[in-house]
Amino acid sequence: MKLTQIQIQTNNLVKTTEFYSKILGFQILEKDTTFVTFQAGNSILKFVENKDFDSIYHLAFNIPENKLDEAINWCKNKVSLIFIEDQNVITSFENWNAHAVYFYDNNGNLLEFIARHDLDNHQIEQFGTDSILNISEIGIVHEQPLALGQELINKHDLGFFSKNSNSEVFAAIGDNEGLLIIVRPHRNWYPTQIPSESNKTVILLENNDTITELNF
């Protein structure tokens, strides 16, 4: 499953444009006074301005499975990585065979670079913006994660992520290429103490050569 486009909100379009274009280096595809779209690897990330918006999203980006250390060095002069414990910034997801680091964007959104070792995306070139391969996760907040997950599976021929222990509080739909991370409201976004909230989100995903639009 591929997340081809994600649309979320920002209360400051100018600062968001500056962060994603100058800090992360994403190419601006389109921009006017109400929205901006970026090329994020093979995905498109769109921000729509809402001056009254006062919440956050969680997004993850796939990076080459061998480039986490280089990604950490690349981040040093750009963003402050979130410490997991002591001075360690790396999270190991043993069941998912992946390692990740976390940081915030200008909006306070929780961003993640994740290296999934079961993907054949080893890269020789030095890590840079072009090493950010695609949007791999978007957080969705719902009172019944399992029920919503099953509904999406039934309607759109999707599947629960086989590597995840899906539960009533946390469920993942998709695969290593793209995941919908469904959590209950007020569950803290790992590794922070920030409770999850349901926010307007539009998702275009590709699965089995079919494009599906989801609105939350």
Your description of this structure?
14% of the residues lie in helices and 37% in strands. The chain is mainly beta and 216 residues long. It has a single domain, classed as 2,3-Dihydroxybiphenyl 1,2-Dioxygenase, domain 1 (Roll), CATH 3.10.180. The two termini are 18 Å apart. The protein has three helices and 13 strands. The mean pLDDT is 97. It has helices spanning 13-23, 68-75, 145-156; strands spanning 2-10, 27-31, 35-40, 43-49, 58-63, 91-93, 98-104, 110-116, 134-141, 170-174, 179-183, 202-207, 210-215. A seven-stranded mixed sheet has the order 6-7-8-5-9-11-10, with helices on one face. The chain has a six-stranded mixed sheet with strand order 2-3-4-1-12-13, with helices on one face. A hairpin with a 4-residue loop joins strand 6 (91-93) and strand 7.
Query: In the CATH hierarchy, what is the superfamily?
Result: 2,3-Dihydroxybiphenyl 1,2-Dioxygenase, domain 1
CATH class: Alpha Beta
What's the total helix number?
A: 3
Order the strands across the largest sheet as they lie in space.
6-7-8-5-9-11-10
Protein structure class: mainly beta
Low-pLDDT ranges: none
Q: At the third CATH level, what is the topology name?
A: 2,3-Dihydroxybiphenyl 1,2-Dioxygenase, domain 1
> Average pLDDT across residues?
97
Rg on CA atoms, Å: 16 Å
Strand element count:
13
Task: Tell me roughly what share of residues is in helical segments.
Answer: 10-25%
Distance between the termini: 18 Å
For the largest beta-sheet, the strand count, sense and barrel status come to: 7 strands, mixed
In what range is the share of β-strand residues? 35-45%
Count of discrete domains: 1
